Amino acid sequence: MAIVQVTIVPLGTSSPSVGAYVAAVIDVLREAPEPIHYELTPMSTIIEGELDNLLAVVRRMHEVPFEHGAMRVSTSITIDDRRDKKGSMEQKLKSVEEKLK
Description:
Layout: E1 2-11, H1 19-31, E2 37-40, E3 45-49, H2 51-67, E4 72-81, H3 89-100
GO cellular component, one term: cytosol
Region (Disordered): 81-101
Family: Belongs to the UPF0045 family.
């Protein structure tokens, strides 16, 4: 299972506010037919699932600002794809918490 961090920034809009764009992007995640799990953070969105599924979802997410009038979109992606053992967002957090004790 892979974990992807994605940040989508619409450019060329009439306002510096991006909340409406973020909400529209989250709709893509909510409606995704792929088996994914996601968490919205104040600065990005974290998605976990099979890498091919995640890339397909990110591609659709990238298109959303264009569909809502943005003239340019900057999308940053970080992929954590560990293949030696199964991992998840929850597992990664638990691992750090155990080391803090």
